[in-house]
Structures are given as structure tokens and as C-alpha cells.
Design a protein that fits this description.
Elements: H1 10-35, H2 38-55, H3 59-66, H4 70-77, H5 85-95, H6 100-103, H7 106-109
Helix pairs in contact: 3-4
Length: 110
Amino acid sequence: MRRFDTKPRLGIHRAGFCLAYAYRKRYHEEMQTVINDDAAKRILSANLSRLLDERGMSQQQLADATGENKMTISRIVRGIHVPGLGLASRIAEALGIHIDDLLRNRRAAV
């Protein structure tokens, strides 16, 4: 009777891990380029502030709707913090807009 090895083969596992790590690192570097762009921060901040005013919604109400704390929402509105994709998606959903509308420059479109 043949005995099966229960240990994972490290070579295959390690190769898969390295490939996943490379993709994750590349994605992170691309996102850092967007996140570190001050213009993108200003646009996001201005759009979020305008959308909250248009809807008569407070930062606390948005925080409650997204499941995030008010301080994080405040930091996004002030342009200090840029939300990740998940939070940006929840913010867009709570405001009833498409996620692209958060980063769209309205002055360039007019």
C-alpha cells in the first residue's frame, strides 16, 4: 500500500505565493500613485463635501450608513485620508452614486 505525503509541497506553494505577492505589490504601487496625488485627494474631498451638502447628510449619518467611524469620514472630507476601494464603494452606495463620481473632476467636465 502506498503512503501519501500529507505535507504540502513547498515549491508549488512558494511559487504561488510569490506570484500572488508580485501581483499584490504591483497593484499596491499603482494605487499609491493615485493615492499620493494631491489633486486626487482634493477632488475626492470636494466631491464628497458637495455631495453631503446636496443630500443634506451629515458626516455622522454617512459614517452610520457605511459602517465606518465618523473620524475616518471626517479625514476623507478634509482630504487627509483616501478611502480604499471597499470604503469608497460603500460611500458611493450610501450617497446613491456610482463610485466613479467620487473622483470625477467637475470643473474639467464643465
